[in-house]
Amino acid sequence: MRSLTFDRVCPLIYCLLLHVHLLSSQNYFPHFASASSTTEAEALLKWKASFLNQTSHNNQLKDWIYLPKSSDTNATNSSSTPKANGSPCIWTGISCNAAGRVTNITIASSGIQGMLHEFSFSSFPCLEYLDLSFNKLFDVIPPHISFLSKLFHLDLSNNQLSGRIPPKIGLLRNLTSLHLHRNNLSDDIPPSLGNLKSLVNLSMSYNLLNGSIPASLGGLINITILYLGKNNLSGTIPKELGNLKSLVDLQLSINRLSGSIPKTLGDLTYLTTLYLYSNNLSGTIPKELGNLKSMVDLRLSFNQLNGSISKTLGDLTNLTTLYLNSNNLSGTIPKELGNLKSLVDLELNTNQLSGSIPKTLGNLTNLTTLYLYRNNLSGVIPPSFGNLKSLVNLSMSYNLLNGSILASLGDLINITILYLGNNNLSGTIPKELGNLKYLTDLSLSTNQLSGSIPKTLGDLTNLTTLYLYSNNLSGTIPKELGNLKSLVNLQLSNNQLSGSIPTALGDLTNLTTLYLYSNNLSGTIPKELGNLKSLVNLQLSTNQLSGSIPTTLGDLTNLMTLYLHSNNLSGTIPKDLGNMKSLVALQLNTNQLSGSIPKTFGDLHNLKNLYLFGNQLSGFIPQNLGNTQKLTVLDLDNNHFSGYLPQNICRARSLIRFTAHNNHLIGPIPKSLKNCTSLFRVRLEGNQLIGNISEDFGVYPSLNFIDVSNNQLYGEISQNWGFCPNLTTLRLAGNKFTGSIPAEIGNATQIHELDLSSNGLVGKIPKEFGGLALMVKLMLDGNQLSGRVPLELKSLIDLEYLDLSANKFNDSIPSFVGDFVKLYYLNLSNNMFGQVHFPTSKHFKLLLQKHCKATTACVAT
After folding, report:
1. Distance, C-alpha 428 to centroid of its chain
2. How far apart are CA 490 and CA 789, in angstroms?
3. How does 145-154 read in b/e, with b if 16+ C-beta sit within 10 Å?
4. N or C: lower Cβ tally within 10 Å for the chain?
């Protein structure tokens, strides 16, 4: 009698062909088992032989070997008879049924690097379970996988498979689990997957799938888990997914899905997890989601959802996580959310929510995270928030909250992050905040807080970040802040703090940022700040600090920014600052510093910005400043420097801003400036520089402003200035330039101000100047220019200031001057104008009344 097992394990045709032979044999079952095992074993060994990494997987699959029978089939008792490992059923990862056919292949995490092309799917007609996950399989999934007709579990996840999912996979009608996640699969999801009616678990997340989600997936009525997240899927969410009544977990996040959330999802009453975040979904949140009473985790964040938050979400009493952040939601926060007593994580931040915060949120006593920041919420912080004893993270910054900070927040003893910055909070900082012993981040910045900084903040020994900047805080900085040994970032800037900087701040050895700028601090800079070896940013500017710069600051070798500007510091600049090899920006300007620039500054190879202007510095500028090849800003103006400018100051062609005006500098323009195409702003006026200007400057594509007036420069004005397309201001006045004005300057059409006055220029005003339509100020006075004023200048309708005095212009005063309605200053005196023909416009007559010099120009023929 034939067994039922036999019928199950044998394909129908194969069984019919062998049936008679097997019945005529007294020992037919062993013969059959041997033949099938041989086929399957050979198929497995052939696949193993195709692996690229033949050595790395040997330990896992070392027993995958086959000892064939002797060629003498009658020698059944000889020593060549196959041993037990002749059957694959005892190989690692292989299981068989009673008939010796392979039913389970599980070789996950075996380091296999190969392709499925070499796997003979047709050789395993009885395979039910295939797990090849966590390997290095690559290339495509062959369509022949459809031969595994008995398969109910297929796991190819966490490999490197690519290409399209074969549509024929939809023929595996017995499949209950299909895991293809974390591969490189692309193209669309085959609609044929909708034929897998037995499917319970489908995971294809973390691939490169595109196209839309097939509506046919709505036919998978037994499915409980559907993971399609982290792909490139687009289009709308099919309303047919609402038919999946058994669905427990639906994840479509991190795709490009658009359109609205289907109302039909509200029919999935067994759903516990719904992830739709990080898509392009729009429209409102369906009120039908309030029917999902089993929901535990709901995440709709990072979309374009609008409208108000549905009150029905307050019915989801099993909810522990609700993420609606980073949308365009508006209206008020529903008080019904206070019914979600199981809620642990509530994030509504980065929307357009308005109105007051419901006091009912104080009922959420299991809440550990509450993010309401970056909305338009107003009103006071609800007193009920003092009940949220489980709270760990609370952020309500960037709103319009007013009133005072609740003292009861000091009862939230588990809190680690408290962000209330960028609101309109007023009053004092509650001393009770000093009870929050687990606090690591406290931000109360950019409010209207007043009063002093509580000493009790010095008890927050786990604090790493303290932001109190941009308030109206007064009084002294408490020395108790020196107890905050874990502090990394301390920002107290933009307040009205007074008194001295506590020496105890030198004990904060983990500090990387210390901002005390824009206060009323006085006294000296504590030398103890030199102990802060981890410090990266130190800004003490815009105070009333006095005394000298401590030499100990030179020990801060990790410092990148040092801002001490706008104080009353005196004495010399310590040469020890040259030890700060990481320094990028140094601002010592607007003090009373004296002495010379230390030569050690030439060793600051990372320095980009150096501001020393507005001091009493003197002596020579070190030539080795040219070694600082990353320098982009060098401001040395308004000091008493003498000697030469550093000749290699722009050797690296990175200098953008260079100012050294109003000093006592002599010598030539640095040669390196000629090819310094990075220049944007140059001011060297008010010195005694000498040289031929026609040779000193080149063409600068970014140059916006240059002033070299009131020096002793000579030569002819270069035509190169006309090829500086972004030049708005060109000042060359008060030098010894000769020759004519280059017509090419008329090509620099962005010029607003041109000052060539007080030189020895001759010839005519180029008619090309008529193309400088943005000109506001034109000063050519004090030269030897002659001829008539070109008619083309009538195009300069924005002109406000015109000085052509002390030249040799003749003919008559141009009549178009009367059309310059914005003109407030006009000087044409000391020329050789002939006939007197005043412009007759009303504007010009008013101008004559204000500026008698114009009248003088008319009579001085």
Report:
1. 34
2. 63
3. bbbbebbbbb
4. N
| H or E element that contains 323 | strand 321-323
Judge whether 189 and 165 are in contact, CB under 8 Å: yes
Residues 583-595: what's their mean pLDDT? 98
CA 620 to chain centre: 43
- Predicted local confidence at residue 733, as pLDDT: 98
Over the Cα atoms of the chain, what is R_g? 41
Looking from the CA of 42 toward its CB, the CA atoms found within 13 Å total: 8
CA gap 93, 381 in Å, rounded: 61
- Give the tens place of pLDDT for each residue, 159-179: 999 999 999 999 999 999 999
Give the integer Cα–Cα distance in Å for 454 and 350.
31
How far is 120 from 542, CA to CA, in rounded Å?
Answer: 78
User: Rounded distance, CA 248 to CA 245, Å?
Assistant: 9
CA–CA gap between residue 173 and residue 22 (Å, rounded): 31
Question: What's the rounded Cα separation, in Å, for the pair 509 and 512?
Answer: 9
Q: Hey, how many other C-beta atoms are within 10 angstroms of the C-beta on 625?
A: 21
User: Exposure pattern of 101-111 as b/e (b: 16+ CB <10 Å)?
Assistant: bbbbbbbbebb
- Provide the edge-to-edge strand list for the sheet that holds 376-379: 330-331, 352-356, 376-379, 400-401
| Alpha-helical segments (H) within 254-377 | none
Question: How far, in Å, CA of 602 to CA of 578, rounded?
Answer: 8
Please, what is the Cα angle at 524 between 523 and 530, to 5 degrees? 145
Tens-place pLDDT, residues 800-817: 999 999 999 998 888 888
Question: ∠606-609-611 over CA atoms, to 5°?
Answer: 135
C-alpha of 158 from chain center: 29
Give the pTM. 0.87
The pair of structure tokens assigned to 701 is 């594509």
Looking at residue 281, what is its pLDDT?
Answer: 98
Structure tokens at 180: 């293809």
The answer for 267, left when phi > 0, alpha when psi is -120 to 50, beta otherwise, is: alpha
Residues in the chain: 861
- The phi and psi torsions of 373 (rounded to 5 degrees) equal -70, 160
Beta carbons of 819 and 796 less than 8 angstroms apart = no
736 phi and psi angles, rounded to 5 deg: -125, 40
- Neighbouring C-beta atoms of residue 377, cutoff 10 Å: 23
pLDDT tens per residue, range 229-244: 999 999 999 999 999 9
Nearest residue to 786 (alpha-carbon basis) of 740, 839, 820:
740
Using an 8 Å Cβ cutoff, are 237 and 264 in contact?
no
Amino acid 523 reads: G
CA distance 663 to 665: 6
Q: Which two tokens stand for residue 713?
A: 């420069």
φ/ψ of 618, rounded to 5, equals: -145, -175
Q: Which two tokens stand for residue 29?
A: 């079952």
- Asked if 92 and 64 count as a contact pair (C-beta separation under 8 A), the reply is yes
- 789-792's contacts with Cβ under 8 Å and 24+ in sequence apart are 789/765, 789/813, 789/814, 790/764, 790/765, 790/766, 791/767, 791/816, 792/767, 792/768
How far is the C-alpha of 641 from the C-alpha of 334, rounded, in Å? 67
- Please provide the average confidence, as pLDDT, over all residues in the chain: 91
Query: What sign for the dihedral angle of Cα 455, 457, 461, 463?
Result: negative
Convert 609-671 into a string of H (helix), E (strand) and C (coil): EEECCCCEEEEECCHHHHHCCCCCEEECCCCEEEECCCCCCCCCCCCCEEECCCCEEEECCCH
Note the pLDDT of residue 852. 44
Give the type of residue at 70.
S
Short-list 673, 670, 616, CA closest to 643? 670
The amino acid present at 387, given as its one-letter code, is N
Phi and psi, residue 748, nearest 5°: -85, 75
Q: What is the DSSP string of 558-618?
A: T--EEE--SSEEEEPPPGGGGG-TT--EEE--SSEEEEPPPGGGGG-TT--EEE--SSEEE
Phi/psi at 224 (5° precision)? -115, -25
